[in-house]
Amino acid sequence: MTALKPESPWADRSPDWYRSATRWTQLTFTDDDPAVLDVDFWLDVMRRSRSNALCLSAGGYMAFYPTDIPFHHRSAHLGDSDPFGALVEGARSLGMHVMARVDPHAVHADAAEAHPEWLARDVEGRPIPHASQPGVWLTDPCSSYHRDYMTDVAREIVTRYDVDAVFANRWEGHGGVSYAEETARAFLADTGHRLPRADVPDDPAWPVYAAWRSRRLSELVVRWDDAVREIRPHVRFIPNRGAMLTRDLVREMVDDRYPMFFVDKQGRSGTEAAWTPGRIGKRTRGLFPDRPVCLITSVGPESPLLRWKDSVADGHELRTWIVDGFAQGAQPWFTKFKAECFDTRWIQPVVDAYLLHERCEPLFSRLPVTAEVALLDTKTGSSTNPWASHGAPSSHEDGFYHALVEARIPFEYVADEKLSLQRLEGIRVLVLPHAAELTAQQVAVVEAFVAAGGSLVAAFDSGLPPTTATDRASLAGLLGVRVVEDVRGPVKNNYISLCGEHPVNRGFEGAQRIVGGTRLLGVEAADDAEVVFRFVPDYPDLPMEEVYPRPGTARPAVVARTHPSGGRTVHLAFDIGHIYWDALQSDHGRLIANAVGWALGEQGAGVRVEGAGLVDVAVRTGTDEVAVAVVNLTNPMAMRGQNRETIPLPPQTVSVRLPDGVRTAEAELVVAGTPAPVEVVDGFARVRVEGVELLEVVHLRWVTA
After folding, report:
1. For the chain, what are the domain ranges?
2. pLDDT band at residue 5 using 50, 70 and 90 as cut-offs
3. Average pLDDT over the chain, rounded to an integer
4. What integer is the mean pLDDT of 655-661?
5. pLDDT of res. 12
6. What is the rounded CA–CA span in Å between residue 560 and residue 531?
7. The whole model's pTM is what?
8. For residues 313 and 267, is the Cβ–Cβ distance under 8 A?
9. Which string of b and e fits 650-683 if b means at least 16 CB within 10 Å?
10. CA distances (Å), 640 to each of 12, 24, 271, in order?
11. Sign of the four-CA dihedral 328, 336, 389, 147
12. Given this model, what pLDDT does residue 391 score?
């Protein structure tokens, strides 16, 4: 391919273009779209939504521009048109950034016949057909199709069109091992192993394959990015990523190849909570605090089993999903499959949400999200099943997340591989929902954090290895416990009894005991620790006549400890996060909130939002100013989509602790666009918000003497 000439009109594009790409439109073309494309309609949508960036289908599986590359399958309706080029030009006329989408996951029959070496193959060596489209074949990401052919496609697009990036979707393969000859030879040459088989799960080649696949995919990221930057230095090739970000790749190879992230979590399905989009912003920030992230949102309903790509999600669901995402730092991106619209009910909800973002963006873009509480984000996955390694949150994490949202405690994430005292600066409480395998270095960081005055809430077996693992670092000494019995369960009919009076067991008036867990860890408490709850000794759940307490050892269930530094630790010796997410017993949510609240110390939280309803709170802090975003998630469908209405919140009170010596402050309600009266009480600036439909941001400012 020929590189751009210096006099090219786009030769001086900024390498930091992505920082101003904050509201995305994505249009995914279908084969028949070139014949029906209404360019003016789409430019109007982008104009109305104040979109400043466009992701548009270009090529790969199907080309939507007049490509010259052999076997680059053109849309059958392309003719002499160039729908990709027309919309690129239109978007640029609106001052927008543009990213070209390519999809290398499959090829058509003519390419498959001419290049059988491109195809993914099953264990018998047979090409793997596409599950949905006859006459189409899946490709092998370790083949020359990805390595060379897709590189040429990217070069052609970047050479011809004024784009800022190339975006690859479905680039990682079909979700299984490809047994193509070239791949098998390469794996054997690189590792000395033969490719593992799915019917032999204990094959020692599995972890070797997982690492090898990770490196091969990482090499693709580097190769593609290098190729487009050789043509235009500001252009980036940014393959699609999910919740794992770069954690399932070779991070030292690819971390600098992702200037920003596009997380493909397009909507809720199953029993996902309304706060799910906000978590994407937090999780990304926990690993890459300084890099922008966009949340890809489908205008249609999402389900892992059902596909209705030409339908639309309820508008209330769409608005809430987008708004909760950007309130927590995940920039909005909507995606529409097919340029022709059979149902336009998605447009106004997207416009409404995007206009809210536009109103908040000047403030959000300059104030970083802050919190006094952080959850440790532990990487999940399996070395023997690399396709399951998507960083899906565990039920332990889900339970803690939901409890903190309900308690209106603002919190952030810290990725476990980034855990350091520097990353914990400003954090007062670190929460471990389930971190069973901490390294010696991570344990040392946590110990130093508490020694410096920080606090820790650890659940279940977090930082507490089995009694047989004598060579592993442990948090037992810090937490004031000693493991005397490894995790057991599942246990039915378990309870924990209150022990004396302590802030961690407040709010349970009238109860001698509350529901315990299903998996229990046997611990003893140190002399200087307080036992706040004890396990009731086991007794049967059936027959009903046998359901009564028996004598036995009542081991500690919740242990609290105050350290000489002023830091506090709480250990909850059962699967409280998991069981709360599974059963949603209010006592478990209260216990989690109490533990974190006590760990915050006598002064408590620096930001408080009081009132009725379910809200997601995000705090942004600057010099002499704080912005508190309150997202209304109150809805009968908050724990399972889709929302069907937006139920306004009743009045809320937002309180922010002022610096010592500050006696006055002023406030603005950013969404309402009005000033708000401020009352200073006991060192807190208090603002009453009369009602919140979906989002309000209280912006407080003061002058430090």
Report:
1. 17-259, 373-599, 607-701
2. very low
3. 94
4. 96
5. 60
6. 6
7. 0.95
8. yes
9. eebebbbbbeeebeebbbbbbbbeeebebeeeee
10. 47, 26, 5
11. negative
12. 53
Contacts with 321 (C-beta within 8 Å, 6 or more apart), sequence order: 267, 268, 274, 276, 277, 297
Query: Residue 60 CB: number of other CB atoms within 10 A?
Result: 27
The span from the CA of 282 to the CA of 251, in Å, is 20
**Token output for 616:** 């997601």
The predicted structure's pLDDT at residue 303: 81
Integer Cα distance of 689 and 679 in angstroms: 12
E strands, 566-610, are 568-572, 607-610
The CATH homologous superfamily for domain 17-259 is Glycosidases (3.20.20.80)
Give Cβ neighbours of residue 276 (< 8 Å, ≥ 6 apart): 265, 268, 321, 324
**384 pLDDT higher than 90:** no
Q: How many residues are there in the chain?
A: 705
Contact (Cβ atoms closer than 8 angstroms) between residue 332 and residue 288: no
Question: What is the per-residue pLDDT for 394?
Answer: 87
Residue 369 token pair: 């999200």
Per-residue pLDDT tens over the stretch 166-179? 999 999 999 999 99
- In 3D space, the residue among 556, 587, 561 whose CA is nearest the CA of residue 574 turns out to be 556
Residue 258, amino acid: Y
Evaluate whether 136 touches 108 at the Cβ level (below 8 Å): yes
User: DSSP code of 7?
Assistant: T
Separation CA 599–CA 605 (nearest Å): 10
CATH number of 607-701: 2.60.40.1180
Residue 292's pLDDT is: 96
C-alpha 338/C-alpha 31 separation (Å) is 9
CA angle 388, 390, 393 (to 5 degrees): 105
Read off the DSSP letter of residue 119.
Answer: B
The rounded distance, in Å, linking the Cα atoms of 615 and 589 is 15
Q: Are strands 24-28 and 330-337 parallel, antiparallel or unpaired?
A: parallel
pLDDT of residue 459: 98
User: Residue 547 has which token pair?
Assistant: 């359901």
Cα distances from 673 to residues 360, 676, 696, 697, 700, in angstroms, run 10, 10, 10, 10, 13
The pLDDT tens digits of the residues spanning 127-149 come to: 999 999 999 999 999 999 999 99
Percent of the chain with pLDDT over 90: 90
Tokens, residue 513 = 């005991």
Task: Measure the CA–CA gap between 487 and 434, rounded to whole angstroms.
Answer: 13
Ramachandran quadrant class, 557 (left: phi over 0; alpha: psi -120 to 50; beta: rest): alpha
CATH classification number, 373-599, choose in 3.40.50.880, 3.40.50.970, 3.40.50.1980, 2.40.160.90: 3.40.50.880
